[in-house]
């Protein structure tokens, strides 16, 4: 089973690791995530070395099946964010 590691845990770890107050760590985490989101939206791709690359993936519209009723449905085109870990991150696992 995968361990749950959320925003709160990240803030707690930064508080200890960098000797920050919880408020400072929370602002830092928020700023990092907001900046990443803005840059991904603007550029479509953000590389954070030596961690990995975030990029926008486009999915075309397609046909699907409603699992409850078995009827055909149309699924709209969509965008999502994908993450590709760097070689150094993969090698460290």
Notes on the protein architecture:
It is a single chain. This protein has 93 residues and is an alpha+beta fold. The protein has 2 domains: 1-43, no CATH class; 44-93, HU Protein, Chain A. The protein has 3 helices and 5 strands. A hairpin with a 3-residue loop joins strand 1 and strand 2 (52-59). Helix 1 (7-18) crosses helix 2 (22-43).
Task: Please specify the SSE layout and strand pairing.
Layout: H1 7-18, H2 22-43, E1 45-48, E2 52-59, E3 62-65, E4 72-75, E5 78-85, H3 87-92
Antiparallel strand pairs: 1-2, 2-5, 3-4
Organism: Solimonas aquatica
Family: Belongs to the bacterial histone-like protein family.
Pfam families: Bac_DNA_binding
Record keyword descriptors for this entry.
93 residues; alpha+beta; HU Protein, Chain A; 2 domains; 3-stranded antiparallel beta sheet; 43% helix; Hist_DNA-bd; structural constituent of chromatin; DNA-binding protein HU-beta; IHF-like_DNA-bd_dom_sf; DNA condensation
CATH class bucket of the largest domain: Few Secondary Structures
Terminal CA distance: 17 Å
CATH architecture of the largest domain: Irregular
CA-based gyration radius: 18 Å
- CATH topology assignment of the largest domain: HU Protein, Chain A
Give the biggest beta sheet.
Answer: 3 strands, antiparallel
């Amino acid at each position: 089973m995968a361990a749950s590691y959320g925003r709160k845990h990240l803030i707690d770890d930064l508080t200890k690791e960098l000797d920050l107050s919880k408020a400072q760590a929370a602002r830092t985490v928020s700023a990092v995530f907001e900046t990443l989101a803005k840059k991904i939206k603007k550029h479509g791709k953000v590389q954070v070395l030596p961690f990995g690359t975030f990029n926008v993936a486009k999915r075309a519209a397609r046909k699907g099946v409603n699992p409850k009723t078995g009827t055909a449905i149309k699924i709209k085109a969509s965008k999502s964010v994908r993450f590709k870990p760097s070689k150094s991150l993969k090698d460290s696992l």
